[in-house]
Amino acid sequence: MRIPFDTLYHELVRLHLQVGFSPDRAALSARLFTEATRDGVASHGLNRIPRFVEMIRRGTIDVDAIPIQAGGFGAVEQWDGRGGPGNLNAHACMARALTLSEKYGLGCVALRNTNHWMRGGSYGWQAAEAGALGMCWTNTMPNLPAWGAREASVGNNPIIIAVPRPDGHVVLDMAMSQFSYGTLESYRRQGKVLPADGGFDSEGNLTRDPAAIEATGRALPIGLWKGSGLAMVLDLMASLLSGGRATHQISTDIHAETGLSQVFLAFNLHRLHSSDEAARIADDIVAFVHAAAPITQGESVYYPGERTRSVREENETLGIPVDPEVWAQVQAL
Amino acid sequence: MRIPFDTLYHELVRLHLQVGFSPDRAALSARLFTEATRDGVASHGLNRIPRFVEMIRRGTIDVDAIPIQAGGFGAVEQWDGRGGPGNLNAHACMARALTLSEKYGLGCVALRNTNHWMRGGSYGWQAAEAGALGMCWTNTMPNLPAWGAREASVGNNPIIIAVPRPDGHVVLDMAMSQFSYGTLESYRRQGKVLPADGGFDSEGNLTRDPAAIEATGRALPIGLWKGSGLAMVLDLMASLLSGGRATHQISTDIHAETGLSQVFLAFNLHRLHSSDEAARIADDIVAFVHAAAPITQGESVYYPGERTRSVREENETLGIPVDPEVWAQVQAL
Fold it and tell me: Is A157 helix (H, G, I), strand (E, B) or coil?
């Protein structure tokens, strides 16, 4: 089932107003949820709305809380998210990092006491749209065993890196687990095996069986010990820079996963290059990757964000695919 | 065969002076090579010396070239390495990023036209010793197929992230390939299989056989498509920030791999926390990871840099292990 962008957007604005958002904040949050859904990330778009509303009703998310500056020095600022909506807090902090980058060449905003930012890529697209290099990451509850550990001891701590390019921004948006739990669930429901090993089964062997990994909770970090280490240092940086909670201090109750720490970096490219020069540098790198012979005849090698762009164009033309059950559920909220 | 730190250091100082380094630059470069060897990274320590000297003799590395500032804005500076020794250029740029971080809260130095920095972790330890968060990365020649590609189209672009901690700095030092070519060679020579899939064999299957991967040149990016994307964005950032060469512009002749681009970031923690507070935050994260039950009874879960520290302590006590052939070769240079 596909619906027009505006239909989804206006329905989400209605719902945001109903749960107490002010009109301008309702509009921005609804836009971020709608764009994530349009870009093929319904897991952090429409499909996430019921949990988002439930967290508002429980008081985990305070719709009225606006982030305030809590400290910092020079081009590094610490902001307190005060338990507000994670997407609005993140958007405000990337905007602030962009402003700092105009003055200092780069800006860093470290945010504490925030909620899940939904699609992290949104803040990468935001930076790239402004013509800046953007980098941001978040910590999460413990949901991934460190390499060598039996139980979850690090977060999957997604990182986003975005590079502006007139012919299509390059936007990397990746968690430290090879597959998210949402992806495991999706493969299991479709009765499919994963395209690569995704974790350990109950006998400690690597497996592509999503159900076996869900049963052990032992998902695989990207690059094994490497992604495990990267998850740990991203958590260290986020909590040291923001002064907020580290992964080990975050609740593993999915309706109470709050008090997250995040970092937003923006690098000003306008001061370093003409926009033509910056575009040429990025285009040449993309062209080289595209030119490599693919493993499978007729397939292509993609840059990060390339398929997002084609999904976006398709969904803007044909309408945004929605799960009819979720769509009915949201309309009834 | 083990030799004392001072024996290795003084021999390397002698050799540096012989190939034309000034005394202070000879001392710093020799110290960096010696420390890498002491820390268990002989591949970018003693074992790399013959190639380093060969590149000096060919004129690829100019021992007298000092980096100069070439541009920038505010807390972001562009430096030109002028083909000087990569380790000295990198050390100077991390030092400059640390200085900028005293003024701006963070500092970014983007270096172009430099040579291989040898052990990248050295500049992470440098930042952590100064009490700062450090992050740096380099691009390389194309030496890794992007995900889906048959031929090398990205670099393995190592990234280093360092977090200071009084009881042992956390220092992540990782390339985007699951195993380096040096590691593949080492396993092959010992007749061992890799501890995890490291690349593709000639039939396109994942394999743990190091020789099969060396034959195809199709090493595996960490996290498959994820590490491939991360390698690409690190190259984009390094060349856009520095104005220097991208991976596709770097020679794949190992004696002519020059004109690299690198980024050095330092974040000032002193302005955000008392050192006691920063230590407590980092210690609690380390303690949580250490507390997780290991998969294998009696084994431990390590933080990045933890084993480096124990190797260092052992080698400082017992002497630094050296390959007798390489040691003789270096003494004869």
Answer: coil
